[in-house]
Amino acid sequence: MTFDRRQVKSKWLLQGKGFSFSRWHLVDSFLVFLVSFATLASISIRTSGTELQSAASFSGIQDKSERSRALFVEAGRVLQSQRCLNCHPVGDRPSQGDFGALHVPKVVRGKDGTGAPGLRCATCHQEENFVPSGVPGGPNWHLAKASMAWRGKSLHQICLQIKNPKLNGSRTLDQIQEHLSKDRLVGWAWHPGSNREPAPGTQEAFGELIAQWIETGAECPK
């Protein structure tokens, strides 16, 4: 036996509206509510797992070198997130999304990291995220130096790169900390827009981890 929704409409009338309200509308609305609630719950669960441990939480590690390495491992959760790796590629092509797919359309690094003539990064990537299209944006959108390629590298290797002035753009460790904790393009990683997964924690918490890592000797994980 089959049922037509129209055959089981209730007799309820919305006052002054002149049309009947179906029990099926209530069922459909309830199902939408359940799906929405489940979605929000899953987002909440995922978000709760993306917080960074505070720099202060490592104070109980008595060995200074061990504490330094532990701090960098925690900061490494940001450095090895897709938000950072996508713009620190091995080779001349950036990647995109939460799974590191090659950038579409095909673009290349160019001489200064801002793309090739005729297809600069700024052609599509403006100063801010463009919500209608979902195209991400931030100030001076560009790729990191080729010498600072991180994708596929271990935390130990990334740490050595960051510390080496010959690879990091001749920056001191204090300048590195300033860059990572204050730079607006770096800060985009926590506000990537669309449905992109943000980097763990906050830029402030990340900057404090880097500051304490430097303070404890800037030791690299083994």
Describe the overall structure.
By secondary structure, the protein is mainly alpha-helical. It folds into two domains: 5-42, no CATH class; 56-215, no CATH class. The chain has seven helices and four strands. It has helices at 23-48, 64-79, 82-85, 155-163, 173-182, 184-187, 203-215; strands spanning 95-96, 101-102, 115-116, 119-120. The strands form two sheets. It has a two-stranded antiparallel ribbon with strand order 1-2. A hairpin with a 4-residue loop joins strand 1 and strand 2 (101-102). The model is unreliable at 1-49 (pLDDT under 50).
Brief overview:
With 222 residues, this protein is mostly helical. The chain contains seven helices and four strands. It has helices at 23-48, 64-79, 82-85, 155-163, 173-182, 184-187, 203-215, and strands at residues 95-96, 101-102, 115-116, 119-120.
Give start-end ranges of low-pLDDT stretches: 1-49
Mean pLDDT: 84
Order of helices and strands: HHHEEEEHHHH
Strand content: under 5%
Largest sheet: 2 strands, antiparallel
Radius of gyration: 24 Å
First-residue to last-residue Cα separation: 69 Å
Give me the secondary-structure category.
mainly alpha
Question: How many helices does DSSP assign?
Answer: 7
Which descriptor suits the 3D outline? globular
Name the helicity range.
25-40%
Strand order of the largest sheet: 1-2
Number of strands: 4
How many separate domains make up the residues? 2
Oligomeric state, counting identical vs distinct chains = single chain
